[in-house]
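#lab-general

N.A. 3:47 PM
ok so I finally got the sequence cleaned up, no stray characters, all 54 residues accounted for. can someone with queue access submit it? mine expired

B.Y. 3:52 PM
send it over

N.A. 3:53 PM
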Amino acid sequence: MLVSQAIEEHEWGNCSWVTRHQLLLDPAVPYTSHNSSMCFKADIKIEYLQLIID
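B.Y. 4:20 PM
back already:
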């Protein structure tokens, strides 16, 4: 389950769309299919923040 999906389903907060970002393409960094990251904006209820971090 995606972190953003769990946050929404447990009503711990609200999340934006998940976006994918290609990381640095450089000869010093071996290129693999895992050279990307995903992120989203989340407005988390303060009482659940540490739970999500852990």
